């Protein structure tokens, strides 16, 4: 009950705070200045099943950061361009980046299980990309922001869950970085309207936890701990939303590092070129540079 109360209290003030976030203007400027990708390639037949590949200087093979943008699991909130500045910052640190577009609630085929299938297929497509580009698939970190943080954690959870619906031979990442986003879905029901401006989770999942218990379990990283990969959990404005997952992941025995960004708002972590954003980019780089 204490956790739920904390979430409700947070979200009661978070929605207007996120909508008027001072870092959003900085992010808007940074995304217009982001580089063009070296390659735009589809990982599936749907229009939103594609990614942007950026390669750093040098011969490689390069460690890879898979980037998963946020946006309340819903179409119309955000797209992969919001992760363009972080992609450039990681490329400057020697990482290749594979920035994913994917279907969400409101897109044909989005929601459960389509969104999850897209994330899985997008990550597994690195195998095809590595045939023509110098990518080190033994050093892959999946990085997600906001609702993308949940999907990034799920990308590791799908390997421990052994769910053949999302790839018979999933590519297992070395690490996951979750930037200011949750590791569980059910606790957000009733709270999601405050932060997203409308109810999302039940529609995204196609029903309530009581109606679809198996789907919620499969979609919730916290239900599959330990994940067996290193986890960097970056907390900012939505820190209370992550508290339960941080505690559970640590208790499970997973290698968990928590980075608290004090006085940061929800978007500061994905705006490089400023102290907080650079701190996040450095921490992500450290995940793959030091095994």
Key features?
eight-stranded mixed sheet; 11 helices; alpha/beta; 291 residues; single chain; globular; disordered N terminus
Describe the protein:
This protein has 291 residues and is of the alpha/beta class. 40% of the residues lie in helices and 16% in strands. The chain is built from 11 helices and 8 strands. The protein has an 8-stranded mixed sheet with strand order 1-2-4-3-5-6-7-8, sandwiched between helices. Helix 1 packs across helix 10 and helix 4 crosses helix 6. The protein is globular, with a radius of gyration of 17 Å.
Give a concise summary.
The chain is α/β, with parallel strands linked by helices and about 290 residues long. Helices cover about 40% and strands about 15% of the residues. β5, α6 and β6 form a beta-alpha-beta unit.
Give a topology summary:
Elements: H1 2-19, H2 22-33, E1 39-42, E2 50-54, E3 62-68, H3 84-92, E4 96-100, H4 114-124, H5 126-129, E5 135-145, H6 147-161, E6 175-179, H7 192-196, H8 201-205, H9 213-219, E7 230-235, H10 239-252, E8 256-260, H11 275-289
Parallel strand pairs: 3-4, 3-5, 5-6, 6-7, 7-8
Antiparallel strand pairs: 1-2, 2-4
Helix pairs in contact: 1-10, 4-6
